[in-house]
Amino acid sequence: MVRFFTITLLSLGLWSFTIHSVRAIPSLSEMKEKLNNGTYSEKEFESMALKLRQQAIDSTLTPRIETKAPSMGQGFNRYPWKRNIFTTVFWIGERPSANNPVPNNKSTWDSNWARNFGGYDNPKPSARSNFIPKGMIPKQNPFYCALPYNDITRGRTKVEVAKIVPWFKEAFVKPGQSVLKGRWIAIHYNGRTCFAQWEDCGPFRTDHSNYVFGNERPRPNLNHGAGLDVSPAVRDYLGLDRNEYCDWKFVDASAVPDGPWKTYGTNNTFWLLRQGKDLKAYDPNNSRKGIPPSHFVTPSATGTLFKNSPTGARVTPQLANS
User: How far is Cα 313 from Cα 276, in angstroms, rounded to an integer?
Assistant: First the structure.
């Protein structure tokens, strides 16, 4: 039972205060009565009065609240890192070469990739500004990548896909529709972390599931066993000197922090959110439940700093705890 008391202890040189819920210590009137009856000595009375005073002080203190460290968002630690993967640069519109026998005017999943992107993704640094070609507004996300596995063959979903792709159940729409296209990955190099969407298959292979989803290393190929292709925008953000060893991992869209990778493209999860589109219809591979429709999808001063990122990337508040 909660009781309130106002206590004045002038004889002890104490001031008045109101306290909340006293159980273990008797009331002041009870203490005086016991003092008069000889139950308490003056010393015991003084001791009890001091305890009563301390209890009153404690009741006025602001409660101590412990808070957890800011979260990068669920979905960042769901998948393991692939470490020290030789990473090469490719671009939309790239012509075949000795180390890249496949032209990139189309992708594994888009036969009109260059046209749908908006043209040639010129890789020359002098021809680029703010991670895109000068004089061009890309129609798709310029932060793209390729990994050596395709979940579709001859218009059908491969048999093993349901077993090896972690997000298969939540992303599958119909046979023959990829559950991989557009998925987000994090790429780390020399203290910087970039985010990109999986938009093509390679380098060299489209069947190495045990590397992409398992523990195998990339297999030998014409380009030093390369296991990841990245776009010029990724190269520029990370500061790659063309080909380098990088780390990469899958991440859920809810874990993607703010950055230039959220700006452009009708295939971009965050552009779609800004347009109020239903991800289940327009981006089912990134429609994991819990991602709210939010326009906070560009760098924000109110975001939470991305852990260990010297680039100052931030987690969008609305997506951080999805």
Answer: 24
Q: Could you tell me which of 122, 123, 115 has the C-alpha nearest to residue 140? A: 115
- Report strand pairing: 244-251 vs 82-89: antiparallel
pLDDT, tens digit, 9 for 90 and up, residues 45-96:
777 777 777 776 666 554 444 333 334 555 688 899 999 999 999 999 988 7
Report the predicted TM-score, pTM, of the whole model to 2 decimal places: 0.70
Residues with Cβ within 8 Å of residue 38, at least 6 apart in sequence: none
Amino acid at the residue 296:
F
Sort residue 227 into left (φ over 0), alpha (ψ -120 to 50) or beta.
alpha
Task: Read off the tokens for 214.
Answer: 């398992």
Of the candidate CATH numbers 1.10.357.10, 3.20.20.70, 2.40.40.10, 3.40.50.1980, the domain formed by 82-320 belongs to: 2.40.40.10
Tokens 């039972």: give the residue: 1
Q: What is the dihedral of CA 210, 147, 99, 96, to 10 degrees?
A: 140
Q: Which two three-digit tokens encode residue 177?
A: 């529709």
Domain spans, the chain: 4-60, 82-320
Quote the CA–CA distance of 132 and 144 in Å, as a whole number: 12
